[in-house]
Amino acid sequence: MNQPAVTWLLPVKNAMPYLTEALASIAAQTYVHHTVLAWDNGSTDGSADELRRWVPSRIPGRVITDQPMGLGACLAKMVEMADSPLCARIDGDDVNLPNRLERQVRFMQLHPEVAVLGTDIQFMNEASEDQPGAWSVSTDDADIRWRLRFCNALNHPTVVFRRDAILRAGNYRDVMPGQDYDLWVRVAQRARLANLPEKLVRYRLLETSVGATHRGHDRLERIADRYTAELYPDLSTDQVSRLRRLLASDEDSGVTLGDYRNLRRCATAAARQAREPRAYFRYSTQYRQQARSLLARWLKGKPMVTAARSLVGKKRQSGPPSPATQSAGTTAASEPASHIVLCDRFWPDTYGGLERKMWNLSRALAGCGLGVSVITENRTNAPEHEAIKPNLSVQRVGPINYGPFWRCISLMRVFWWRKIIRTQAGPGTLWVNDPRIAVATVLAGRRRDLVYQPIGCATARNRLAVTRPEVYTMRASGVLRFLDRLAHRLAPRVIHESDNVLKQFQDCYGDRRGVRVVHNGVEPAPLDTASRAAARRRWGLDNTHWVVGFVGRLDPTKDLGFLFNAVSRIEDSQDIRLLLVGDGPDQERLQTLATELGIADRIIWAGRCDDPAEAFAAMDAMVLPSVYEAFGNVLMEAMAAGVPVIGRRRDADPSRPVLTPCDELIENGVTGLLVDPHDPADLARQLQVLRLFPGARDAMGRQGRRLTTGRSWDSVVRQYLRVISQPVEHISAQAA
Q1: What is the value of pTM for the model shown?
Q2: Would you give the DSSP letter of residue 524?
Q3: How do residues 639-657 score in pLDDT, each as one tens digit?
Q4: SS3 label, residue 504
Q5: What is the per-residue DSSP string for 655-691?
Q6: Burial, 313: exposed, middle or buried (Cβ in 10 Å; 0-12, 13-18, 19+)?
Q7: Which entry of 245, 284, 366, 616 is 20 to 30 Å from 388 by CA?
Q8: CA–CA distance from 431 to each of 319, 448, 492 (Å)?
Q9: Hey, which residues does 199 pair with through a beta bridge?
């Protein structure tokens, strides 16, 4: 007989009349591979009899009634007696949602590095009625483990943990109260922790509950004192005491720069101790808030800072408006005289989706009868001035000569662009997608004219590169990350191209006003059976082949190995062909991987294609296996061509991030399919669905094409213009 996958640890002492509801919530779980280990600690209200009525007749398990002991000792004994790899906690007066165990077990299967997984909770009263408020939890491992230095960051009745990890950490101890916090502190030195941001447990508020009878932080302080060396490495006892006192209060007096340095030193040493990247804990939300607080309190009252603020205030009040500011005022209130698009690359220097977006934006603005001037760096020896079509001209400048300052590329680009904006950008709206150009726009005195459309969050990309060293193209320098944060804060109007990008900026830099999300546009593609046959002949394909396509740069970020792994798992896949359209630095590694997986003979390396429409015509399905995409224009282009698409779901878990907008662009089962972001076998199953059910495949293609109707670039630009036609103050108020 197979061992159960999960053992419920249910210590009970006088839990009636709520125990029945708790046991019923265990029996109602959608995940059925579980058993209960219930321990009665001398109940006098009939709790033991109620346990026997449920266990084992309705719920498999056992009840222990003759060994009453303290809660910590009881839990330690139950962990030792459990015969499953996972254990789940619940109290006798709380209630599980039916899908609690299913959600947590699934997460633990996908994240073997996580030792303890908690969830959010919903309060309820004695009558089982929901109460306002909840104990919201941090989901990020770095944030959880850093918060444990100051508070309990896991809701004990909600956790599922790996039994072997708990035993390695020394198991529960008979500490009352705080036996859970005592354990998490020890586990956090050895393994990762996580929380699901879902309310999967209803927590009953009772005056007699353990949490209610031991209020305050004193008990946590006493436990933290035991582990000072582990929690605050490289700091002396006096330094730790001072740091905790400063962080627990808002007092300004006495804060020194050394306190900030001690906090940073502690975070760096803690990361080294936990065998994590050097800046691992400095990415956490709690650390950033603490660091900002200490710096602000240290700077408060400094003569130099006070004088600078006074000077800025005087300039704002009495300084004469510059020509740029005057033009900005008219821009905010009425239709701008012209639109200037500032970008590093532009036609004919095409490179990828970003350049296609800037081309479509410029063309659509010009199509609305607006004067559009593109200023870009000249990297192709193209003409310095060129009129591409009516109302649209390109001015190519440069290229930049870094000279001896090649190590400071980002800063050099800021000052180069500031000069270009001051000397060559006339009045009007400035459309920018690069943080360096956005900061240059502010420094040039054109802040109110700025419309910032970031191509992605540099900090989020760098975090992904930290967890996935193979994705080296996502690395961003500290200077670029600083400029990215600065541009996002200073730009009066920010237009994100997806909720995916918006969430990246919120997670890394926090919320702000004046932000909009406007999805990119797509132009409809004609459906032509003859062109499909011609496209297939071009690449040696016929009607017996089932073609899975990919269009994009062959970059490690695209994670084509995920697709290769899925195809290698499909049985009887000799008729499958992978049509890969694009080139890039990852091609040689991918060719080696394809040979190792035994699918090299099924891959067609099509190379770069200026017009992907012909490639879409040859495909039966299109897969975008990327671990990072800001928008994924190719998904919309494939749907416009009537091709069903498959993408990976977004997963912002910092230990294994997959940051894509597929969830918001693909309607699962209608216009395409979404797959587990970490399981190639799931992609293999979904490919089989499209392969074996051509009717469903064709229906998805039709629905995708219908969805993209009305999403032309002309309609998208009209949305843009509605945003910039409002005064900056009005936009900020609406965004708030």
Answers
A1: 0.56
A2: -
A3: 998 999 999 999 988 888 9
A4: helix
A5: TS-BB-SHHHH--BTTTEEEE-TT-HHHHHHHHHHHH
A6: exposed
A7: 616
A8: 27, 12, 12
A9: 120
